[in-house]
Amino acid sequence: MSKEVFDFNAGLKKKLAITFVVGLVLLLIGAVMPGGEHADEEHEGDHAEESHSFNEPQTDMEVLAVADAEASEEGHGGGWFKRFKIDFWINNVYFTGIAIIGLFFFAIQYAAQAGWSAYIVRIPLAMAHWILPAGVLMLVSYFLFSHDIFHWTHSDLYEVGGEHYDKLIAGKASFFYFPLEGGSFPVFFVVRMVLFFGLWYWMFVKLKGLSLKEDELGGNTFWVQMRKWSAVFLGIFAVSSSVSAWDWIMSIDTHWFSTMFGWYVFASWFVTGLAVITLITVLLKEAGYLQQVTSNHLHDLGKFVFAFSIFWTYIWFSQFLLIYYANIPEESVYFVERLLSDHYSPYFFINLFLNFFFPFLVLMTRDAKRLNVFLKIACIVVIGGHWIDFYLMVTPGTLGESGAFGFTEIGMYLMFGAAFLFVMLKALSSFALVPKNHPMLQEAKHHHI
Amino acid sequence: MSDTKNYILGVFDDEDVLLKAVGQMRSAGVKIHEVYSPFPVHGLDEELGYKKSRLPIAAFMFGVLGTTLALVMQIWMLGIDWPMIIGGKNFVALPDFVPVTFELTVLLAAFGMVGTFLVSSDLKPWKKANLLDIRITDDRHIMAIDLAKNKAIDSGEITKALKSSGATEVNDKKVEA
């Protein structure tokens, strides 16, 4: 019989602490490296200079200049500290996604009355513990960093007749500032942020409470209630995930819009979350926990990662192809910024390789989905790959050509990762790894594919 | 006639009993010709010790063929044979080709897989079903044991073993091939 409660021992805590410190050191190395300062000097000059770094004919340039003014409005100055803020935002959105996908996956299992997953539902539940810290970080970092992240937060954009007046952004003002005037306090935006995190956290507490009570008292009533609340949460999540994608990422490129964007961010979040669930399941199994989990359960998780890698690619490509094919300047600027840039174009293709070709080819066969080693490799690549996906969503619109990838980015990722894992593993050690009285345990035991 | 095949048929009315019986018969050294059942029985493949199906390999090959054909077709048509400017793009603009390439890959993989399956299991519309027992189309599982492949074991022993492992009845069946 395997150990029933995860032991979050001192050795593991020490490892996480070391990871955090290494991240911090890398972050500081990034600060003193010449790269950080270099960006500062380069972009002190005219904003137009930035646009010219794209090797594009002059006609497109005019389009770019308009859209790019948005990115370079405040100048790309600020150097390392600005990079720090942007990295903070990328990681926060990315790990928020992993946490909320934990709850989403948990809810799907109950809403769909799934039996196969009864052994592993506590892992996504533990991931969802990050929702609260993520919400706090998101709110605080919004108030501290918003001027560097969101172009639309600059109040001079909304002054009619002013030098920086932007008709298009002023037209979108109520999406951020309702019921106040554009350029004042973004009530609607902040309310949405608080509301989403509040709803998510509330649903998380609700579902966790029911799940733990089921451990204690048994019976089917809790399971039936969890089904109900899961369905409620899925409805909330459908709307909130999409809107939060517009709010936290799409509004960075304020002029630009894509009707696929909510799905795109959701797909990226979902596949990352699935890869985290799978990876942790495999690692726990190797560490002697969850011995009930067989290769049949892993096969299903592997199929999830495989299928949703393809789903992400489908969404990514749908967004890309339509914009590329129609070639409407106000839409295609998004890809011009990424594809015709010396810095971002390699990442554009790395992103596709890591998140599509690699998991597609590695996880294609049945055997690969049933073997720990393949699952681990594919999941690690997908988890890292989607960080690059978020990097590509956020950085070009905020840092422009002064964006870079170096110690700062890696350091921030390690720090966030360590903090996330600490919260998650601490939560995982606080309850039984397998729900004790889950009515589907028998079905999970006989799961066979 | 040398083409006559002699089978012993064990009839089972419960798939759990059947699964256990398959294991028992195999560990007793009996070579099972085939098990017929009206619905898929989970775990039967493993119990019977079937080798992994090679069908996915065929599917992959047909998929690669589809990808190649689609790309060659589009590049040749739009890039070489009759270059046309579409939407101001290059003649050979790969993103444009992705949807067609994807569709042809899926189409050929699916058709190829079905075709391979039909050929390899000798299925065709005019095929006469050669049922060892009509009840496998309803509610009974049949374990067929080919006597020619089990010469080492006495047929009486096999019958006994089948009975003791839970077969509701055991029949002999001669099939003219």
Characterise this structure.
The complex is a heterodimer of chains A (449) and B (177). Chain A has one domain (10-35, 64-441). Chain A has helices spanning 10-32, 34-42, 47-52, 58-72, 79-111, 122-127, 131-149, 167-171, 173-177, 187-217, 221-248, 261-286, 295-326, 329-339, 344-362, 366-370, 372-398, 407-428, 441-445. Chain A is an all-alpha fold. The longest helix of chain A is centred in the first third of the chain and has 33 residues, at 79-111. Mean pLDDT of chain A is 89; it is low at 36-77. In chain A, α1 runs antiparallel to α18 (407-428), α5 runs antiparallel to α11 and α11 (221-248) packs across α12. Chain B has 177 residues and is of the alpha+beta class. Chain B folds into two domains: 4-50 and 137-176, ACT domain (Alpha-Beta Plaits, 2-Layer Sandwich), CATH 3.30.70; 55-120, no CATH class. Helices cover 46% and strands 15% of the residues of chain B. Chain B has a four-stranded antiparallel sheet with strand order 2-3-1-4. The longest helix of chain B has 27 residues, at 55-81. The interface between A and B is small, with 10 and 11 residues.
